[in-house]
């Protein structure tokens, strides 16, 4: 399965890249305009947007953990990915018929519920399919395809809104097309990696049947890494707030999807080279750079007072994703053996998912009471602290 050298990509990684592309194309047709839809059509307050985003990002936290545990135990990656991708791609178009913030919350809940089921098995499948020497490159490829889809999504949304100005619901319905293509690729073409039988999958000398949840079973570096990134996530509120800040500074709503296109395009182009860089120089320096970059970008968002600065910051934000998103998963895969990667990814995703709940909620209330600069400044400070902790603790 380890065939990255010489440019050959394992089929599972290649297919998952395309599934991620179409799924994110579908999702990112919606996400740049969803906060605008909530505030201008449904007339929600920023604090209510924060609740929707906070619940949406963290509701599936325990599912991420248990789907990781179960995918290790059963050796079934595709099953869990199929359920998760299927649910997310099924419910997202129903934003078109939502009329209240509670309906938006329920749809967002179901979408993130699906993500909670699929993420850990997907990450474990990629980790199992690539050698340690080129794991960063493999995760970088998946992230690059993900970001390319996320770039094309806002571009499609911009095209629809340019043709039918203000018709957010049409965008929601059309998002079903790439979502359906993602499911066809997953169901028809992805094959489960040849897993060992349950009695052969052993964890630390014990059978998989007695695998337990708990911090003590993990390596110290994995525990510390998870705690530090959970701290960072608790201050890293939803990207929906970037759209609100862009609108507040003066960017026309129809142009906001193009700003998302720019940042995702940069992330797509950068992710695979940055992943390969982490294979050469190590994951830690790349991750530390990414966190400091995030701190600088969010401080900039808080201080920005012109649309030109918003454009620049969106572009730089794409680099932050390239330096962190796939790299952290590759680093986790380095820290744990193959038979425990699903559980490890699940534990990490669960902890950071739980931490995501207060992030958007406190940010929404801080935004309303103290202003956007305060919300972005707090987030920037915590990101810098997380980078220093990784550096000082030598995680």
CATH architecture type: Up-down Bundle
Biggest sheet strand line-up? 1-2
Number of helices: 16
Strand fraction band? Answer: under 5%
- Give the CATH topology: Growth Hormone, Chain: A
Shape: globular
What's the rounded overall pLDDT mean?
84
The CATH superfamily turns out to be: MFS general substrate transporter like domains
- Structural class per helix/strand content? mainly alpha
Helix proportion range = over 70%
> Which consecutive residue ranges, at least 5 long each, have pLDDT under 50?
194-211
Largest sheet: 2 strands, antiparallel
What is the rounded Rg?
20 Å
Give, in order, the helices and strands.
HHHHHHHHHEEHHHHHHH
């Amino acid at each position: 399965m380890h065939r990255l050298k010489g440019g050959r990509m394992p089929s599972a990684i290649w297919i998952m890249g395309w599934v991620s592309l179409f799924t994110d194309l579908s999702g990112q047709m919606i996400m740049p305009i969803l906060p605008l839809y909530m505030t201008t059509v449904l007339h929600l307050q920023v604090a209510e947007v924060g609740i929707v985003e906070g619940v949406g990002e963290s509701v599936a936290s325990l599912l991420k953990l248990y789907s990781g545990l179960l995918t290790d135990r059963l050796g079934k990656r595709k099953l869990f990915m199929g359920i998760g991708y299927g649910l997310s791609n099924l419910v997202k178009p129903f934003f078109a018929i939502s009329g209240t913030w509670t309906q938006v919350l329920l749809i967002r809940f179901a979408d993130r519920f699906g993500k909670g089921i699929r993420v850990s098995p997907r990450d474990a499948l990629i980790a199992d399919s690539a050698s340690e020497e080129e794991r960063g490159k493999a995760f970088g490829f998946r992230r690059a395809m993900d970001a390319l889809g996320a770039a094309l999504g806002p571009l499609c949304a911009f095209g629809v809104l340019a043709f039918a100005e203000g018709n957010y619901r049409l965008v929601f319905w059309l998002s079903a097309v790439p979502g359906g293509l993602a499911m066809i690729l997953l169901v028809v073409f992805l094959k489960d990696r040849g897993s060992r039988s349950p009695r052969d999958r052993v964890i630390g000398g014990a059978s998989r049947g007695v695998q337990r949840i708990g911090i003590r079973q993990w390596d110290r570096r994995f525990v510390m890494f998870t705690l530090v990134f959970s701290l960072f996530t608790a201050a890293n509120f939803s990207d929906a707030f970037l759209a609100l800040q862009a609108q507040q500074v003066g960017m026309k709503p129809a142009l906001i999807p193009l700003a998302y296109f720019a940042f995702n395009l940069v992330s797509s182009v950068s992710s695979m080279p940055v992943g390969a860089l982490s294979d050469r120089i190590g994951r830690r320096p790349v991750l530390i750079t990414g966190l400091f970059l995030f701190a600088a970008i969010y401080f900039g968002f808080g201080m920005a007072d012109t649309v030109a600065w918003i454009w620049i910051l969106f572009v730089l934000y794409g680099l932050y994703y390239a330096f962190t998103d796939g790299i952290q998963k590759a680093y986790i895969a380095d820290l744990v053996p193959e038979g425990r990667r699903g559980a490890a990814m699940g534990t990490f995703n669960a902890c950071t998912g739980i931490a995501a709940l207060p992030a958007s909620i406190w940010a929404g209330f801080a935004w309303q009471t103290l202003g956007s600069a305060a919300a972005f400044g707090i987030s920037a400070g915590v990101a810098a602290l997380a980078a220093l902790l990784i550096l000082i603790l030598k995680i």
